[in-house]
User: Fold this.
Amino acid sequence: MDGAPDDAAVEIARARTVIEQVEAAIARIEQGTYGKCESCGQDIDEAVLDVDPLARSCRCHQAAGLA
Ligand SMILES: [Zn+2]
Assistant:
């Protein structure tokens, strides 16, 4: 079988999540808070943003599971 319906549903759900994350990032750019940790307000490491441009938390808060 090529592509069970369940697989397609999973792919669509994944794509929706990405779209939501991109929209959230755009909203943060508009608010001027892009690149700042949502938990502590500190600038997120450029290395973190390089790996994940949609990162919402600094390294320590991602490690704390609040990303
Ligand atoms: Zn933080």
Observations:
- The domain at 5-63 is CATH 1.20.120.910 (Four Helix Bundle (Hemerythrin (Met), subunit A)).
